[in-house]
Structures are given as C-alpha cells and as structure tokens.
Amino acid sequence: MDNFLTLLSWEAEEYAHHDKGKDWFWSVGIVSIGFFALALILQNYLFAIMILIGGFAVALHGSKKPKTVHFAITSRGVAVDNTLYPYDNLKYFWINYDPPHIRDLYLISSKTFQLQITIPLGNADPNEIREHLIKFLEEKEIEESLFDSIARFFRF
C-alpha cells in the first residue's frame, strides 16, 4: 500500500462485542439440542450432524474476542489493515450512525462476490469520514441488512 496519501485513519474493534453470560451459551445449547432432536425424529442424520457442528461453531465464535483493526481513508481507496479497497471497485457508501448501537460505514462494491463491506467507525467522527469519502464516492442510503439486525438482537 505504497504511493498514496492517508486522509483519515482510526482504529476500532472488528465487530461490536457483547459479553455473553452462561445464559447465552445455555440458550445456544438448548436450541441446538432441540433442532438436533427434531432432525433425529425426521431421520435426517446429515442435518443432525450439521446442527451439532453449527451449534458448536456459534458458541465458539460467540466466545471469541474481536481484534482491533486499523482503518484508513486514503487517496486511492479505503484500507482495512493491509487490504485496500480501491475507489474504482466501489460504487457508493453510506454511514449508518445511530449511537450507541449502530456506528458503521457501508461500502458497496462492484465486485460480484463481495457486495457490501461493513466497517465499524469506533470513535471516529462520522462527519469527517463523510467529508473525505464524498470526494471519491457517491453517497447512497443503505438499509442495515437483516443479518446485521438479527445478530445485534441476539447480541452476537
């Protein structure tokens, strides 16, 4: 990532972390066991195995702490740690800002397999971020995805 000017940079956790108590893990276990039992009753053994693996993966991911990531708006694109998303590959942006729960920058990519990039703002000033991005990208309102809404509801 050489030969470009950094206009603004900040650090934030890669995702909003919610401390999960024993009740959260018990809930994951009970729901997983319930679906596992249903799969056995329906004699769908592959689904039963997938439920066990999925429940374990959800619990494992839920216990993981997010790492701190470095973000930057540069003259060539938006940088996330060592990955640069060039402006040429981005269509537009939207800042979804509703503290204290929602503080995200959405970038819509023109790439087929990576349509939306969500970047947490942390304590960065959303007005300053907008001021820099508006020079390079079109601003267009983007609704929060259903997946993000559900994840926040379940404190994931």
Provide structural commentary.
This is DUF5673 domain-containing protein. It comes from Candidatus Giovannonibacteria bacterium GW2011_GWC2_44_8. Keywords: Membrane, Transmembrane, Transmembrane helix. With 156 residues, the protein is α+β, with helices and mostly antiparallel strands. It has 2 domains: 6-14 and 66-153, PH-domain like; 22-63. The chain is 35% helix and 30% strand. It is built from 4 helices and 8 strands; from the N terminus they run βααββββββαβα. It has helices at 22-41, 45-63, 126-133, 146-153, and strands at 6-13, 68-74, 77-80, 83-86, 90-98, 102-109, 116-120, 138-139. The strands form 2 sheets. It has a 4-stranded antiparallel β-sheet, with helices on one face. A 4-stranded mixed β-sheet has the order 7-6-5-8, with helices on one face. Helix 1 packs antiparallel against helix 2. The chain is elongated, with a radius of gyration of 19 Å. 12% of the residues are buried. The mean pLDDT is 87.
Key words describing this protein structure:
30% strand; 2 domains; PH-domain like; 4 helices; 156 residues
List the helices and strands and how they pair.
Layout: E1 6-13, H1 22-41, H2 45-63, E2 68-74, E3 77-80, E4 83-86, E5 90-98, E6 102-109, E7 116-120, H3 126-133, E8 138-139, H4 146-153
Helix pairs in contact: 1-2
Shape: elongated
Helix percent band: 25-40%
Q: What name is given to the CATH topology of the largest domain? A: PH-domain like
Number of helices: 4
What gap, in angstroms, lies between the N and C termini? 32 Å
- Low-pLDDT ranges: none
**Superfamily (CATH H level) name of the largest domain:** Pleckstrin-homology domain (PH domain)/Phosphotyrosine-binding domain (PTB)
The secondary-structure class comes to: alpha+beta
Strand fraction equals: 25-35%
Number of domains: 2
Task: Report the average pLDDT across residues.
Answer: 87
Round the Cα radius of gyration to an integer and report it: 19 Å
CATH class of the largest domain: Mainly Beta
**What strand line-up does the widest sheet have?**
1-2-3-4
Order of helices and strands: EHHEEEEEEHEH
Q: Profile the largest sheet.
A: 4 strands, antiparallel
Second CATH tier, the architecture of the largest domain: Roll
**β-strand number:** 8
Organism: Candidatus Giovannonibacteria bacterium GW2011_GWC2_44_8
Transmembrane segments: 24-57
Keywords: Membrane, Transmembrane, Transmembrane helix
Protein name: DUF5673 domain-containing protein
